[in-house]
Amino acid sequence: MTVTLEVTVSGGAGRVFAPMGMVTPHHSPVDFALVGAEATLAAEAATGQWVAVAEGAAGPVTFRTRFAEGGPGYPEALFTHRPNRFTTAAEALGAAAEGIKAAAGGGAAGLAAIVTHVADQFSYGHPEERFYDGHDEIPALCGLTEGSCVDINTYLVAALRAAGYEAGYVTGYFFPAEKRGTCEDMHCWVVTRHEGAVQEWDIAHHLKMGRSDIGPGQNPRPGLRVPLAHSMGHDLPALGISELKILSQPMRQAPDGGLDWAEVDIRLTNWPG
């Protein structure tokens, strides 16, 4: 299957960059192409992930990654905690997570209890101001809070890591079954590893479907998700970028260094089965 991202570019847009895909137990990128501009690569300093960079594009640019089914597993870097303002729990959140873990008896039960607790803190939405804006750490929530998949998973990963669990944050695209190959924007989910058992969690999709029975699994809603990148707080020295929250959809970088999301058409071809 192939993910195609066609970016609209008008005039001198500076750079456009995007991640090229990552390996998981479900999919592996096998080749990549960039059409419509001169291409270079830039590496993320801590995780070793690469982004493709379109330089000086004057028209549409297409990022295209082909995936094979199956893969060796999630990269070890996914589970490595690199402290920054998007990944570090404030003291109150850490204490709350430890308390939930202990009350559940620790182990896998403690992990699941933290996931359930986090789900209870959120209603799904896209607020203009996020609960962690302006904070150097992820604060503890005191009541029901509106949040997107990005916001919910930021809180979940910080809480899990504060309680001593291995957890990571994956970004990519979710293609609903009924659309058979199109979607509107990026999606993200959380991966945990406890005593060798790897599980995926998607609180946001459960909440969007009105479901409170939060459990592990990639697709409470029928469809297909494709991973592009992982982790938060990225440094891309070749582009002069530090602490970029996520790598997901293509981004524009203006000549003055300013960043914004690119206008993109997202498509999946060769739907499996």
Automatic annotation (TrEMBL):
Q: Which residues form the Transglutaminase-like domain?
A: 98-190
UniProt cross-references to SUPFAM superfamilies, sorted A to Z: Cysteine proteinases
Q: Which Gene3D superfamilies match?
A: 3.10.620.30
The UniProt entry, under Pfam families, shows:
Transglut_core (PF01841)
Q: What is the protein named?
A: Transglutaminase-like domain-containing protein
Q: Which organism is it from?
A: Rhodovulum iodosum
